[in-house]
C-alpha cells in the first residue's frame, strides 16, 4: 500500500509542467508568415502578394521588339524590325486553330513546353521542333482548351513567355493579337 502511494506521488510529480501548449504560444513568433497586410515579412504572405511581387520583378516589355500583322490579318509576329520574329501566332486553315511558332533554334526531335503567364492566367503549349537545320524552330497548334488558355493569357497586361533553352520574352497584349483570335473562329 505504501508503494502505491509513492508511485502515485512520483507520477503526479512527473506530469508537472508538461502542458502540450508552450507558455509563450499565446503570441506567434515574429518570423511567422501571416496575412498580406502584415508588415516586415521577408516573403509574400499569400498568392496575391506573390503575384504582385512577381509582376514588379518582370523585365520591361522586350526592348526594340514590337507586334506586326500580316496584310490579311491572319498572322501576327513579335520581334525586332527586319529580323526573324521571336514569336508568331497565325490562324491555320481548317478548324479554328492557332499555330504558335517560337523563333528560336530547336534541337532535332526536340519537345518542350511554352509557358505563357499574363492577364491573371497561365497557359502551357506542348512544342515540337519543326523544320530542318538552321531553320528548325519550336511550333505548336492550339485548339480547344489550349487555345482558350492562350487567349486568356493575352487578356490584359504584359505576357511573360518562357521555353527552356530560349530567352524569356515579355510582350504587350496589342489589339491586333486580340483581333487575330476573334477572326480565327
Molecular structure report:
The chain is of the alpha+beta class and 185 residues long. It is built from 4 helices and 9 strands; from the N terminus they run H-H-E-E-E-E-E-E-E-H-E-E-H. Strand 2 (75-79) and strand 3 (87-92) form a beta hairpin. The protein has a domain at 66-183: Immunoglobulin-like. A 9-stranded antiparallel beta sheet has the order 1-2-3-4-7-6-5-8-9.
Short description:
By secondary structure, the protein is of the alpha+beta class.
What is the first-to-last residue Cα distance?
A: 92 Å
The backbone outline, from C-alpha atoms, is elongated
What is the C-level CATH assignment of one domain? Mainly Beta
Main structural class: alpha+beta
Using DSSP, what is the number of strands?
9
Give structural attributes.
alpha+beta; nine-stranded antiparallel sheet; single chain; 185 residues; 4 helices; Immunoglobulin-like
Amino acid at each position: 500500500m505504501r508503494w502505491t502511494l509513492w508511485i502515485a506521488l512520483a507520477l503526479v510529480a512527473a506530469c508537472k509542467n508538461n502542458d502540450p501548449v508552450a507558455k509563450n504560444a499565446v503570441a506567434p513568433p515574429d518570423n511567422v508568415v501571416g496575412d498580406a497586410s502584415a508588415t516586415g515579412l521577408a516573403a509574400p504572405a499569400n498568392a496575391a502578394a506573390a503575384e504582385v511581387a512577381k509582376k514588379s520583378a518582370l523585365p520591361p516589355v522586350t526592348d526594340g521588339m514590337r507586334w506586326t500583322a500580316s496584310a490579311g490579318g491572319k498572322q501576327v509576329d513579335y520581334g525586332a524590325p527586319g529580323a526573324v520574329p521571336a514569336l508568331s501566332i497565325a490562324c491555320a486553315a481548317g478548324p479554328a486553330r492557332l499555330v504558335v511558332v517560337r523563333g528560336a533554334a530547336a534541337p532535332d526531335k526536340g519537345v518542350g513546353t511554352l509557358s505563357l503567364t499574363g492577364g491573371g492566367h497561365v497557359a502551357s503549349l506542348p512544342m515540337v521542333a519543326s523544320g530542318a537545320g538552321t531553320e528548325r524552330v519550336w511550333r505548336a497548334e492550339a485548339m480547344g482548351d489550349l487555345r482558350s488558355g492562350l487567349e486568356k493569357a493575352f487578356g490584359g497586361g504584359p505576357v511573360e513567355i518562357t521555353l527552356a533553352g530560349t530567352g524569356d520574352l515579355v510582350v504587350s497584349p496589342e489589339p491586333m493579337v486580340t483581333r487575330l483570335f476573334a477572326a480565327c473562329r
